[in-house]
Design a protein that fits this description.
With 260 residues, the protein is α/β, with parallel strands linked by helices. 17% of the residues lie in helices and 34% in strands. The strands form three sheets. A seven-stranded antiparallel sheet has the order 4-3-7-1-2-6-5. The chain is globular, with a radius of gyration of 18 Å. The two termini are 32 Å apart. 41% of the residues are buried.
Length: 260
């Protein structure tokens, strides 16, 4: 898939939480095809300690406004600098990168799909939910966080399907982790897509495997270059070690060694 280096302009930078911002970017020409589960690499200018691009999941692509949305967790100098971008500033983006989620077939309208996200791992699930909805499939979302304050974009998710929530402190939804939610005991799903902290995805993978449910995970390994050159993001699979940035970030759970 062709990759582009684009100088994109910031249209809005929304601070959703002390640790999260939603960066919206546009381009003069129409955006190239971008699929849910893919990511971009952002060049961070103005940060003397940030030398490499930062990998960010595609949160949403708004074709009507020609906007790319990036939900960014502020965890270091690079992402904190990105949270300071102002409307009108130019940001250099490499996109689209990696392989996205496998979309259900066109005749799978009755497929019961669950999208499971934790923390900033909910980001790619918004665009996935939107693309499923366009195909006539209404997904369910199972979102987990430490507290109610840490759940992002709930209104947007609720426009796409039923939303189920767990929080570790019980401040919203059911208390505990996503794999403890009662929806997993009460409803049979045909497909599960998940992104979030690795222990969460491994738990979801074990659940899906035990129930013989088709499942894909989006790994969040450190992807410094995005093109398979730096080898920072290597993951062990059934066929040996691979670069997540080029072979993933999305993998079927049967490709990984987690079930072993």
């Amino acid at each position: 898939m062709k990759k582009y280096l684009l100088d994109m302009k910031v249209t809005e930078n929304m601070h959703l939480h002390p640790q999260y911002c939603l960066l919206k970017l546009t381009n003069d020409a129409p955006l190239p095809d971008i699929y849910p589960g893919q990511f971009v690499e952002v060049r961070v200018d103005g940060s003397p300690t940030t030398f490499l691009r930062r990998p960010i999941s595609v949160n949403y692509v708004n074709r009507a406004t020609n906007e790319l949305w990036l939900l960014i967790q502020l965890i270091g100098d690079g992402t904190r600098r990105m949270s300071e971008y102002k409307s009108g500033e130019t940001v250099n983006i490499m996109l689209p990168l990696g392989n996205g989620f496998t979309m259900p077939e066109a005749d799978d309208h009755q497929t019961n799909v669950l999208l499971v996200g934790g923390g900033v791992g909910t980001a790619p699930l918004l665009y996935m939910g939107y693309c499923l909805k366009e195909k006539g499939i209404t997904p369910s979302f199972l979102l987990g966080a430490r507290s109610a304050a840490d759940l992002m974009q709930l209104d947007e998710f609720k426009q796409l399907g039923e939303v189920y929530i767990t929080t570790e402190d019980g401040s919203l939804g059911e208390i505990g982790y996503v794999t403890n939610h009662s929806i997993l005991k009460n409803t049979r799903f045909d497909k599960i897509y998940t992104c979030g902290p690795k222990p969460m995805m491994q738990a979801v993978s074990r659940y899906a495997g035990s129930e013989n449910i088709w499942c894909e995970v989006s790994l969040e390994n450190t992807m410094a270059c995005g093109i398979g050159a730096c080898l920072c993001c290597v993951e062990k699979t059934q066929k040996g070690n691979v670069c997540v940035c080029t072979e993933g970030p999305v993998f079927n759970i049967n490709q990984l060694t987690w079930q072993n």
